[in-house]
Amino acid sequence: MAVAAEDTTDILSGLTNQLPDRDPEETAEWIESLDELIRSQGTERAQYIMRSLLQRAGSQSVGVPMVTTTDYVNTIPVDQEPEFPGDEEIERRYRAWLRWNAAIMVHRAQRPGIGVGGHISTYAGAATLYEVGMNHFFRGKDHPGGGDQIYFQGHASPGMYARAFLEGRLSEEDMDGFRQEKSREGHALSSYPHPRSMPDFWEFPTVSMGIGPMNAIYQAQSNRYLQNRGLKDTSQQHVWAFLGDGEMDEPESRGLLQLAANDKLDNLTFVVNCNLQRLDGPVRGNGKIMQELEAFFRGAGWNVIKVVWGREWDDLLQRDKDGTLVDIMNSTPDGDYQTYKAESGGFVREHFFGKSPETKELVANLTDEEIWNLKRGGHDYRKVYAAYKAAMEFKGAPTVILAHTVKGYGLGTHFEGRNATHQMKKLTLDDLKAFRDHLRIPISDEQLEADPYQPPYYNPGADAPEIKYMLERRRELGGNVPERRVKHEPLHLPDEKAYEVANRGSGKQLAATTMAFVRLLKDLMRDKEFGKRIVPIIPDEARTFGMDSFFPTAKIYNPKGQNYLSVDRDLVLAYKESPQGQIVHVGINEAGSIAAFTAAGTSYATHGEPLIPVYVFYSMFGFQRTADYIWAATDQMARGFLISATAGRTTLTGEGLQHADGHSPILASTNPAVKTYDPAYGYEIGHIVRHGLEEMYGPDSKDPNVIYNLMVYNEPIQQPKAPEDLDVEGIIKGIYLLAPAKIDGPRTQLLASGVAVPWALEAQRLLAEDWGVSADVWSVTSWNELRRDGLAAEEEAFLNPGAEPRVPFVTQQLAGATGPIVASTDYMKAVPDQIRQFLPNEFATLGADDFGFADTRAAARRYFKIDSHSMVVRALEMLARRGEVDANAPKEAIEKYHLLDVNAGTSGNAGGDA
């Protein structure tokens, strides 16, 4: 017989609705017993008894389904609510001023001639959620415990500015600079939390939806990492993330919940502002997003606290003896709840309470206005305080608070709960007056009517008792929030000895540049002062990158340690986990890797403890997959190293299309804070890494907030020693002469980077031996940085027409280099083409501009025409057009080298996972 699935979409887990009640009288007795227990001994004792019964039922094989959702009521019963410790009336008064100033700031930013927009409704609905935290929970950086990390919901930023205005941190002129970052420079406020735009104010960028929750989880883990490794006591620091219920549809918002549960991150609290609305309409019009999120978080192992109804509902729920009101609450879809708040008390009486005679009778003695004033829990100080306090006291798991609110709360009938409220930027004169009256702001009609586009802000001044109270609360909690500081412990950088392994080369051994980097990293980690600051981050590819050698000594970070017998325990490179482990091994999780990178790379500011994250990943799954997260990392001014391993379109033989990266440098070039290098040899890597560390933490750095991205390959080659007269400046700035021509003859210049440099050296030999052509070989360590320097020189010349223009570095380096240029890389043509405009020479680019595929390296390079023989033919073609070699030479070369036969390629060798 087929059994229908339980319909649990909207309400509960279907504990009884699929089963017959064979003895209703006995059932009633059991329920009466439970009711009496609650009446006589309270909900806490009843909770213990129920848990004991469920445990016993399980041991007796009684099939009790998991309760993934509870009734649509507050998780914390009235009898377990703590006393509210503050002065609620004072806090309510200045909360009204905050809501007024936040809305007015956005309204004024929409005045004629400016029109830069903003969001009014988000903070209006979430003000209570923030203010309870600001007044009683969020610890500033002067707190003895070190201060909390708060991820503010991006669209609520006007509320944080409004508070800073009342606190005296921002002026009225600053408020009027909202979203005018250049035209009002010096008095400008960024649209959202952008630390790079406001480096003393914001700490965490959040408005790219989903990145806030992801980063908050890894920030909480990073706090524990610092604690467990003995770098800093973070035991009193808490991470709070404020999120929208619509934002929870982002995969990143939910996709990393398991880490927080597995690591038992009880130093983390999510507060989901459940106003039931997306940007365009309801989140779950036909369903119940709070119930869905409760089930999801509970299933992921989180502690769930629902704050659904305000205190005005307590009496109604107490009088709801037969549960009819709760049944209606359970069965009413979100789309209806949204409609109720856009209508009136009479509408709610008829359409909500009127669903049953019992509930209609419950509110018979209430006026329509009283029904309208039945608040949602997210607007009730006491309910929110109880939830926050419970979250702080809960141990063993992270907590999510699901708070029921109204978007645009208090803004009037044109805004509250309306589908379009997110896009509404300004208020009419009537809206302003109604909003003022609702908040009891002492501003006259005449002041509003004088210029409806610029209604006044309200600030009673520093001597007002409310402002004194507000500032005293912040003093007791440790100072301003949000606030960013960059004072950190001094970082002792490694000396030259740590880079010796990179300069020595590999001797007779073959080693890929990935392995050359790993060897360097291992030596840097051995430095007594500096080594402990390195945070290797690996997404389940340590063995591919040759980093399994780190396991026995550095160990993998796991707060639980290793409580199992490792299958490879007898091997030298056995898998080792430890609470003191240094390696952050995130699994197959590139987004989480960047979140871990961000937390570690900003620890110098967040904790005053510098860490150097080194994230090693398949190059294809770096910027292509996680570019948005890297943007957030650079917004937060993270510092560290991104190592794009197994780089290039043809080096990762056998893997095929989606693993063949020919475009990462172009994607990386779009981020101004990322410096991308494509080194050919280990000694180049050593100088680049050393310079990167100096730029991030050296005393003479002009801009330390950078990320170095290194492309490294898995093709083993003989790594040469560093030349005696090495042009280190050229390595750092992007190009140096590696191998001058060895003969006289028609001149050409061969430019290559990374794994293509050996092809250029082979092409140099072939040109000389077979065609009498003289070729210089240049190692281009960074096409991207050369382009940036060239563009900067052009910009300087553009803005200073009378001055002697600065010559771009690449133009200087190649000033005496005559003849046509042939540039080849393991990337698409757009990579070397970045420098074409800065060179007067005839310029030809060879590139891998198609999809990747699985084959031998030599065949793939011959197919793309980027190998040594292709470089020779291309150089001969340009020289032939100039009349400097025989006109038939190019055709002869194509035939001689079988250029059209993919099986004739010889550039590259087999083997080498790393």
TrEMBL record:
Where does the record place the region Disordered?
A: 1-24
Keywords attached to this Swiss-Prot or TrEMBL record, sorted alphabetically, are: Magnesium, Metal-binding, Oxidoreductase, Pyruvate, Thiamine pyrophosphate
Q: What class of enzyme is it?
A: oxidoreductase
Question: Per the record, what are the reactions this protein catalyses?
Answer: N(6)-[(R)-lipoyl]-L-lysyl-[protein] + pyruvate + H(+) = N(6)-[(R)-S(8)-acetyldihydrolipoyl]-L-lysyl-[protein] + CO2
Q: Where is the Transketolase N-terminal domain?
A: 152-312
Sequence ranges assigned to domain Pyruvate dehydrogenase E1 component middle in this UniProt record: 495-719
Q: What is its EC number?
A: 1.2.4.1
- Residues binding Mg(2+) are D245, N275, Q277
Q: What does this protein do?
A: Component of the pyruvate dehydrogenase (PDH) complex, that catalyzes the overall conversion of pyruvate to acetyl-CoA and CO(2).
Designated name of the protein: Pyruvate dehydrogenase E1 component
**Species of origin:** Arthrobacter yangruifuii
Q: Which gene encodes it?
A: aceE
